[in-house]
What does this fold into?
Amino acid sequence: MQKLTIAAVASLSILCLSTSGGAAELKGKVNAVGLRSAENIAVYIDSVPGKTFPAPAAHVTVDQTHLAFAPHIVVIQQGTTVEFKNDDNVGHNVYWPAIHHDKKLAHNMGTWPQGLSKPFTFTEVGDVPLLCNVHPEMSGYIFVVPTPYFAVTDKDGNFLIKDVPPGQYTLKTSSENGKPATQPVTVASSTVNVNLTVSK
It folds into this structure.
């Protein structure tokens, strides 16, 4: 009985060390060259070797309000379901002409009135330009990324990605008007600082 208890305690200790040790913050700033702003740029880790990530259970909401998609830019993990909601007192449509420039992945969700929402699960990685064929001035973007380690820059270009396990990764960006940028990063301490440049 004593041996079983010792073994159980040892196993529990190893488990605690493996799950609690090493998670870090990836903190940084994106410098925008030739863009109006460094805001609303997606920053993400493109893969974690040896790991796969289940689809998130929680849904993300993209609203249509005041004749605009809100938020204008959304970053989601691959497999996430987005609820497209209409909060305006007019009918709205949601469609995208491609996902990551692949027109075969175009989709039109139809048109629906105020107070209703429709879900869609994004299983393909890439940029999704959102449009409304009722109001052609409306636009938005969803960036579907392969890992849960992502962030969106604030108005000054700052971003923060939490709970990153130690390792060597490639950090990537996606944005509405800028070219994709990549940068290697090594995560080994509690806080890692990194700077990226995104140009038009």
